[in-house]
Amino acid sequence: MKAGPSQDEVRQQNLGALLRHVHFDGPTSRAVLATRLGLNRSTILGLVGDLTAAGLVREELPQETGRAGRPSLVVRPESTRVHVLAVDLGVERLATALIGLGGVFLDRRECPWPDGHPQDPAQVAAILAGFAQEMLARAPDGSSCVGVAVAVRGIVRHPDGLVSLTPNMGWKGVDFAGAFAARLPLDVPVLVANEANLGALAEHRRGIGRGSQNLVYLHGEIGIGAGVITDGELLRGERGYAGEIGHMNVNPYQGRPCGCGAHGCLEAEAGERALLEAAGRDGRLTGADAVRSVVTAADRGDVSARAALHRVGDWLGIGIANLVNLFDPDLVILGGTLRDVFLGSAAQVRSRINTNALAAVREHLRLRVSELGDDTVLIGAAELAFSELLTRPLETLTRS
Amino acid sequence: MKAGPSQDEVRQQNLGALLRHVHFDGPTSRAVLATRLGLNRSTILGLVGDLTAAGLVREELPQETGRAGRPSLVVRPESTRVHVLAVDLGVERLATALIGLGGVFLDRRECPWPDGHPQDPAQVAAILAGFAQEMLARAPDGSSCVGVAVAVRGIVRHPDGLVSLTPNMGWKGVDFAGAFAARLPLDVPVLVANEANLGALAEHRRGIGRGSQNLVYLHGEIGIGAGVITDGELLRGERGYAGEIGHMNVNPYQGRPCGCGAHGCLEAEAGERALLEAAGRDGRLTGADAVRSVVTAADRGDVSARAALHRVGDWLGIGIANLVNLFDPDLVILGGTLRDVFLGSAAQVRSRINTNALAAVREHLRLRVSELGDDTVLIGAAELAFSELLTRPLETLTRS
């Protein structure tokens, strides 16, 4: 029952729309911005003026036009003056990067996880804060950090970012945002989100999902998570827990046991452990290298590796078909180690989708692997950290 | 990258917001409207004036206030002057109603399906158009029909409403909207949508789902469908096919055969046929009475009826747990014959959800049966038919 926006709100919306355009699409002339945003040229002039005065964009000659004559100025994001801090608490490493407006990696640091089980959130926060301080100290004078976001393998409450549960780190009800913020020399909000949701955001804004309004991103590591974009927006659900596809049960009576206590969850049937065990390997030695070695062995004709990929591909196809019937996406993207699993089992995955997904729903479906590779989640964290600036540019910058 | 709205668009949004408020919440004073919509009193005065002049609302003394002193005028929807035509192509009957602004049933007609398999869309359209003409002829002089919507048991493409597939009627690629519109004495769009999506809309706007922003409505008849509300909006997916939960596969290797060609779809394990067959009855004689008779028999202690409800309740719980893990709703509503099935198997359903849904996700979950009963889908069709008017009141009325 929300009423329409005030004139002030409309101006903020327009500033956000223009800034998002150059952030995602890169340098753009004022004339093109006017057409794309459906605003007249004098409005665009005013908006560009405000964003320039705030230090968010600048106008300059394009680098190369390939055309004769004097080229038009283009509006470009101030990548070296405005940045965010993105953090990925991965399964195998802690990674962090300073990423400039427009999505430019300015600096990055990473390390393996420290020893200790369950890992101490304060210790993790201290290591990452050390990286952040190094990178911020090297950032140009006068540049601003406008947001911080952290990707977590686990269940994260929205909007406060409480880490409800991370099976592999043993965290339960941890305020990692608070622990990290307390150690940072910054006065901006620290956001925390689930890795598959951030992967979906990254692929939707900067990867193979650009232009799609309805996609599912599947992220595989030890577990399997999904991030779902519906009608252009990230599906969050009531408390931010949507997308727990790893615990979609597909084999309740005969299924393999899952870490959650149930039997036959998708990640129990199609996760890294299931693949490695089906291939006769040690299921405890999960990770990208272990998964790749099964795919490579299958390529070379190893019978048990082939059978394992066939089996896991079948369950993966069952899971994807269910998602297709439920979400009607036009695109399903496989990321993390599911990228390799899919490349080694695509025929089986597709065959199962053809059996299980309704014809009308699967008709225009595209199945693709992640384009952004190992940085998908980190890029998604940066996009989350930028989201406030991209919605209310001037207010956000004033606060940071 | 959409820019903010123009002043004209803001005015339309405000008119829509005010009209939606009185449509859903009933007669409301101008002072309360100002508070609820966050607009000042002079803006409200202008909006009420425009809507009154258009014949969409009127101001009058409230019927009973229970308070001393002169009561304030209230703004109420013109239920007898502005209406829609709602149609439900149910499994057992064709139903149609004239429903006034504010959700008032003004008139209704229904009949069993005509003989003939596959049912002829033109014949069905002709019967319903006959009902419509009778009801429209009895509507007050000067009243307007502003929209028509039809609920279909099947897969319906959005936004054009093409009926891609209706398993029980045998329709495939049928333009029922066109066939019906051609026989109606009306110049308004005819919308077609899936029954579970309309059930979700009805419960969200007028039933037990009021106030919830993230709910799943499960509709059971011969098949099982779902309508999902996420962040206050109906989930449609890329082509309108989202919510095909009946074909979410939960038992691919040992499952019962499904009409779609796969094995172990949720509707094959938990649909009416599965219940009746598990109870030792004729699985072809589906329908509300047959389902109720199993529930009644179980209440009286019939062992096979109890075992059947236990079995079907277990699969239903598995299906609901999957939806809970995927959508993180705060409310799951069971409608159609799943209402009776759930009342007869609630303990089993809840027990399975407790095993299969993640603790954080199920923690605040409420499971409820539909409040709107047999009219849920018809009410949802009416809300769909009103949606254009409630978004752009004056433009829509001018056209109708």
How would you concisely characterize the structure shown here?
2 copies of one chain form a homodimer. Chain A has helices at residues 7-25, 30-37, 41-53, 121-138, 176-181, 195-206, 266-270, 272-278, 288-299, 303-327, 338-356, 359-362, 376-391, 393-399; strands at 28-29, 57-60, 74-77, 82-89, 93-100, 104-112, 144-152, 155-156, 163-166, 171-174, 190-194, 215-220, 224-230, 233-234, 331-336, 366-369.
Q: Characterize the main sheet of chain A.
A: 5 strands, mixed
Largest interface: A-B, 70 and 70 residues
> Overall pLDDT of chain A, averaged?
94
The domain count of chain A comes to 3
What does this structure look like?
Chains A, B: Belongs to the ROK (NagC/XylR) family. Chains A, B: GO terms for molecular function: kinase activity. The structure is a homodimer of 400-residue chains. With 400 residues, chain A is of the alpha/beta class. Chain A folds into 3 domains: 7-77, Winged helix-like DNA-binding domain superfamily/Winged helix DNA-binding domain (Arc Repressor Mutant, subunit A, Orthogonal Bundle); 82-198 and 377-399, Nucleotidyltransferase, domain 5, CATH 3.30.420; 210-370, ATPase, nucleotide binding domain (Nucleotidyltransferase, domain 5, 2-Layer Sandwich). Chain A contains 14 helices and 16 strands. The first copy, chain A, starts with 6 loop residues before the first helix and ends with a helix. The model of chain A has no long low-confidence stretch (mean pLDDT 94). Chains A and B meet through helix 1, helix 10 and helix 12 of A and helix 1, helix 10 and helix 12 of B.
